[in-house]
Specification:
Blueprint: H1 2-6, E1 12-14, H2 15-32, E2 37-43, E3 51-53, H3 58-68, E4 75-84, E5 87-94, H4 101-112, H5 124-127, H6 134-139
């Protein structure tokens, strides 16, 4: 898992490699906290070989565990992967506490502000933005 995380962090990997990395991460979390989290993955056949940004899913899963599922007896994280026209949609959801409208507005504004220099309150999604890859980041869309 460490090798996957540090080697070629700006690159692309196949969807199946990214999913395997998330499964390994969840295996570690479930070792640390037995029976606390469940990972559900729904994907369409034939998408496993598509290339996606490396480490695009794990920071989102980590945020769900850290910020959304703290108080859950059994936290469930679901990843849906489907093709829509010429795009692939990766959707991550959980049964956590969610966000209020103020938190949501802050997060949306923070993700749009590429000039922000203060990372002391950074959001995992902002940290996984590929440096010098504004075209790629602008093509990614986050829906809440």
């Amino acid at each position: 898992m460490l090798r996957y995380s540090v080697y070629d962090t700006m690159g692309f990997v196949s969807l199946d490699k990214e999913i395997n990395h998330v499964k390994e991460y969840m295996h570690i979390q479930n070792y640390r906290y037995p029976n606390k989290y469940e990972l559900l993955i729904n994907d369409e056949d034939g998408l496993e070989g598509i290339m996606i940004l490396k480490l695009i899913l794990q920071p989102i899963i980590e945020n769900a565990i850290k910020h959304g599922l703290d108080d859950q007896v059994k936290g469930k994280i679901k990843i849906d992967i489907r093709k829509q026209s010429q795009e692939v949609c990766l959707s991550v959801s959980d049964n956590g506490k969610g966000m209020d409208s103020e938190q949501l507005d802050f997060m949306k504004a923070y993700l749009k502000d590429s000039s922000r220099k203060d990372d002391s309150h950074s959001i995992g999604l902002k940290k996984c933005t590929p440096k010098n890859s504004t075209k790629i980041w602008s093509e990614l869309r986050t829906f809440y």
